[in-house]
Write a structure and sequence with these properties.
Layout lengths: L2 H6 L15 H26 L5 H5 L1 H25 L6 H9 L1 H31 L3 H4 L3 H16 L3 H32 L22 H11 L8 H4 L8 H29 L15 H10 L3 H16 L1 H17 L17 H17 L4 H4 L5 H21 L4 H59 L14 E5 L5 H13 L3 E7 L13 H15 L6 E6 L6 H14 L5 E9 L12 H12 L4 E9 L27
Parallel strand pairs: 1-2, 1-4, 2-3, 4-5
Length: about 650
């Protein structure tokens, strides 16, 4: 087994794609980690904004959380209908493009791409935040390093394929849900027994005194921060094709399990925070603890169960970025199919994955983590806008879809999707206004910028298609053998190979040699190639009655090599407006990568400049000489018998 097979898994054939499909058990960790893990940072994001209210602020987390749950239920029923309507994958981009038009589709695409990058960044940073809660003094200074390490491991795991990813994340996901359910059940039981005033095993940090009063604006900001708990619920509808047979039913079952778990977690955490008077701690504080760390310690103490719970939270928060890794490549592929992104996003890698989407997501997430130093609280203001904008466009597109489809139940479907579009649309405005100054403006600027870039990509592909399409049969006019030009530094086996091939192509062959006078530092000194050329090329070809190539000597007093070559090639092209110019570039191919450092790379530079400065009539042909590989000898020719000796001054190989 090779190193790559060990690291990424063996390559999968197209016929093995069916085996990569998953059911609800694996679908929950693959497509639900983002939604489930948001229960860890969504309530905390809301509670952080309630810090100025002190003890009073904790009371508001319950009504805010239940408002979010109501919105979550509306979106849940909307996406169940989207799965039925788009069994091939009904992501917001697809739904908006097909029903609302190109520009709304691009708006959804840009919003989703930003949301997925933020999903990965926020999930990882929140997971590291949970780890830092265990020992803030020792770990806080290593926040960014740990974040980037987890990102690299996630990318590595996802490169192994969908089924193996689901298997790797299965235990952490259900351990996370199971431990939190135990905390919620035990905590609520204690609260009921104590009449709503349970005694914490480990007292949470004392809430500060109130420094501000309640206001509608503050409640709206709290709601908008808490709405980050809803991100990721669209993932299942985007990835319907990843599920096994009866895929719509399997996808809806998976979505139902995810939403049910999320509702229980959000409601339980909100009720326990109020019962135990648990609020958020300033993330910049040296005594920072996550809300779930405080909650678990208060209900269960700081024993083994506490560390298992915190460990599962760390794992799931970090792995929640997997939802982005599962859906971002599918999204970029869908966009690339419509030529709004580079075509590489369509290509499947060795494990039947759209690997370039994974590379892009990893890169953008790393940049975001570095810029914001891996701190969740700094990333949260950018979050949720993209997700809710995509929700709104998707549900609005579904309203149009049902109106076009008609039939029994269409009005009911339209009402559900219309309600979802209205509710999420209002939420977008609330989040945008509430978080604009705190960083949401960055997302507001990035969305139109991405749309502009996608339109430019589409414009380029349209131009390429317009220029290269050909509806006419092959043109047979002005077919003439090309002028063949061969750059030649000295007579060698490499240049001989190029010259032999040139003789098969044309009667008009011109070898171009640049004489720099390097050897003696005398610019007007005759070059050494001329006598060798006469003896090794002209005489054998004349004897064989074959066309004799012309040797062009270019003098370069400033010792430039490539520039004079390019200028002469372009001059010859201009002097022969009706002929093709074939430039044959002999080059040495070494066996080890490091051996390239021992040889000049003029051939590569020459090819690059010709590609940039040339025209349709200039053709570049590689003539490689593979070092240490025996080449088949030429067909014996008696006319070469007169050229078996090397004249004085010639450079032997």
């Amino acid at each position: 087994m090779s190193f790559f097979d060990l690291l990424f898994g063996r390559p999968l054939a197209n016929s093995e794609q069916r085996a990569e499909h998953v059911g609800p058990a694996a679908g929950v960790p693959i497509f639900g980690l983002d939604a489930l893990s948001s229960a860890a940072y969504g309530p905390e994001a809301a509670l952080t904004l309630l810090i100025p209210l002190g003890v009073l602020g904790v009371r508001y987390i319950v009504p805010v959380s239940f408002a979010i749950i109501i919105l979550l239920v509306i979106v849940f029923f909307s996406y169940r209908q989207t799965i039925d309507a788009y069994p091939g994958g009904g992501g917001s981009y697809t739904v908006a493009s097909e029903n609302l038009g190109t520009y709304p589709g691009l708006l959804a695409a840009a919003a989703l791409m930003i949301d997925y990058v933020l999903t990965a960044a926020v999930g990882i940073s929140a997971g590291v935040g949970a780890l830092i809660s265990v020992d803030p003094g020792a770990l806080q200074k290593h926040t960014l390093t740990i974040c980037l390490g987890i990102l690299f491991l996630l990318a590595l795991v996802n490169m192994r394929g969908l089924r193996e990813t689901g298997g790797a994340f299965l235990i952490p996901t259900y351990l996370f849900v199971g431990t939190l359910l135990v905390v919620i059940c035990v905590g609520l039981t204690k609260a009921l027994i104590s009449g709503g005033h349970p005694h914490p095993i480990v007292a949470p940090p004392q809430l500060p005194a109130a420094t501000a009063g309640i206001s509608l604006w503050l409640i709206l900001k709290v709601f908008s921060s808490g709405c980050t708990a809803m991100t990721g619920v669209e993932a299942v509808s985007n990835g319907v094709t990843a599920f096994r047979d009866a895929r719509c039913k399997t996808a809806k079952t998976t979505l139902t399990i995810i939403i049910a778990m999320l509702i229980v977690l959000l409601a339980g955490i909100a009720l326990l925070c109020r019962a135990y008077s648990i609020g958020a701690v300033d993330p910049g504080s040296p005594h920072y603890q996550s809300v779930l760390s405080e909650l678990t310690a208060a209900v269960m103490g700081r024993g083994i169960f506490y560390y298992v719970t915190i460990g599962s939270i760390l794992l799931v928060l970090s792995l929640s970025a997997n939802t982005a890794f599962a859906d971002f490549p599918r999204l970029t592929r869908a966009i690339a199919l419509n030529k709004f992104l580079p075509g590489v996003f369509i290509i499947r890698g060795r494990r039947l994955l759209y690997s370039h989407g994974i590379y892009a997501l990893t890169t953008f997430t790393a940049i975001l983590l570095i810029v914001f130093r891996g701190v969740t609280d700094r990333l949260i203001p950018l979050y949720a806008i993209g997700a809710f904008l995509a929700f709104t466009l998707s549900q609005a597109g579904m309203v149009v879809h049902w109106r076009r489809a008609g039939g029994k139940g269409a009005l009911g479907h339209m009402f559900v999707n219309g309600l979802g579009a209205f509710a999420t649309g209002v939420t977008v405005l609330v989040v945008l206004v509430a978080k604009f100054v705190e960083g949401a403006w960055i997302t507001a600027v990035m969305v139109p910028l991405l749309i502009f870039l996608m339109l430019r990509v589409k414009r380029h592909y349209n131009r390429v298609e317009a220029e290269t399409n050909n509806a006419a049969p092959i043109c047979l006019e002005d077919i003439e053998r090309p002028i063949v030009l061969i750059p030649m530094d000295r007579w060698s086996r490499i240049s001989e190979k190029g010259l032999r091939f040139a003789l098969m192509l044309s009667d008009d062959i011109r070898a171009i040699h640049v004489h720099t006078g390097d050897d003696q530092d005398i610019e007007d000194k005759d070059d050494e190639l001329t006598p060798i050329w006469q003896h090794m090329v002209v005489e054998p070809l004349r004897a064989a009655k074959l066309p004799i190539p012309k040797l062009i000597i270019l003098r370069s007093p400033y010792r430039y090599i490539v520039q004079p070559l390019v200028e002469r090639i372009l001059t010859i092209e201009g002097e022969n407006p009706h002929r093709q110019i074939a430039v044959m570039v002999p080059e040495l191919v070494v066996r080890r990568w490091w051996q390239n450092l021992l040889h000049n790379q003029r051939a590569q530079v020459l090819k690059l400049l010709l590609l940039v400065k040339g025209s349709q009539r200039v053709v570049v042909i590689n003539i490689p000489w593979y070092l240490n590989k025996p080449a088949p000898g030429p067909v014996p020719n008696t006319s070469h018998a007169t050229a078996t000796t090397v004249p004085p001054g010639a450079k032997a190989d």
